[in-house]
Amino acid sequence: MSHPGKNREGGKKEKTPRPREHKKLALKIIVGCVAALIVLAALNRIEFDALYVRLFSPKPLSDTTGKEQISFAVPNYSENIFEDPEYMAQIRDVRYTEGALSTLITDGNYAQYGAALELLHRYLEAVIAGDAEALPSFFTEDYKKDNKLPERFTMQKIYEPEIEFYSKNIINPGKSDQVIRYEYVMRYRIMNNNGTFRDDVGSDAAVPEIYEILEYESTGEVLINSITKIRRVAG
Questions:
Q1: pLDDT value, residue 41
Q2: In a designed cystine with 230, which of 19, 112, 155, 208 is the match (CB 3.0 to 4.6 A)?
Q3: Given its phi and psi angles, is residue 41 left (phi above 0), alpha (psi -120 to 50 degrees) or beta?
Q4: Which residues have a Cβ under 8 Å from the Cβ of 119 and sit 6 or more positions away?
Q5: Can you state the percent helix, strand and coil of the chain, rounding each to 5?
Q6: Residue 65 domain flag
Q7: Once rounded to an integer, what is the mean pLDDT over residues 172-195?
Q8: 135: Cβ contacts below 8 Å, ≥ 6 apart
């Protein structure tokens, strides 16, 4: 038996949205669409490739990035460093390392260790003597084309020089233009460094460098082709 004013599901009437609720819902939809368009427009202006490179590409080491300020001694071009007893008391002989063998060369016989090592010793001697005029004779034309050699510098109080054999390979083997390519790691300290020869290192500090040396078998020339500094990557 049915009762007037009641439906079969308990007599509750279904609610229908009011006109005001329709307007609120429509307004929310419009605001959402406008916000989405603003976000899309902003995203469209971002260069994602450039952003990715900035965020995820490793930062290269360079001479200008984070370069520390170094305090140098005052240059004295008339000083004879061999008259400085403090410098003369330092270890000035070359320590040569090849594999597990390490030798302090005290007899001056560098030739027995090869022409490349002999070249590096003569190069060090020229630097110690402040002989800027001799420097060009130690380098290949390619090196001199790409790098500016110092035109003048004082005698350098180099001490504790160390040279370590790194690698050797042959370019154009068996041909008339065969070249033997060597790599050596060299490090040394400069007492009272005045920056006239090396302005990348402070006094008594050692920055290791890789010297690439080419031995031209057709002419017998042995020359430095490149010098690469070994830098630590800060963690």
A1: 63
A2: 208
A3: alpha
A4: 138, 213, 222, 223, 224
A5: 30, 25, 45
A6: no
A7: 95
A8: 126, 127, 149, 150
Classify residue 130: in a domain, yes or no.
yes
Structure tokens at 17: 């949205």
Residue 210 near residue 105, CB atoms below 8 Å: no
Query: Structurally, how many domains does the chain consist of?
Result: 1
Q: Please give the residue range of the domain that contains residue 189.
A: 81-229
Instruction: Answer for the pair 188, 158: CB distance below 8 angstroms, yes or no.
Output: yes
What pTM does this model have? 0.69
Of 134, 142, 133, which Cα lies nearest the Cα of 181?
Answer: 142
pLDDT digits (tens, 9 = 90+) for 139-174: 999 999 999 999 999 999 999 999 999 999 999 998
* Length reported for the chain: 235
CA nearest neighbour of 121 among 92, 99, 150: 92
Amino acid at 130: G
Cβ atoms within 10 Å of 65's Cβ, excluding its own: 8
Q: Residue 174 domain-assigned?
A: yes
Distance CA 206, CA 133 (A): 25
Least confident of 11-20, 95-104, 179-188, 211-220: 11-20
Q: pLDDT (tens digit, 9 = 90+) per residue, 85-107?
A: 999 999 999 999 999 999 999 98
CATH of the domain at 121: 3.10.450
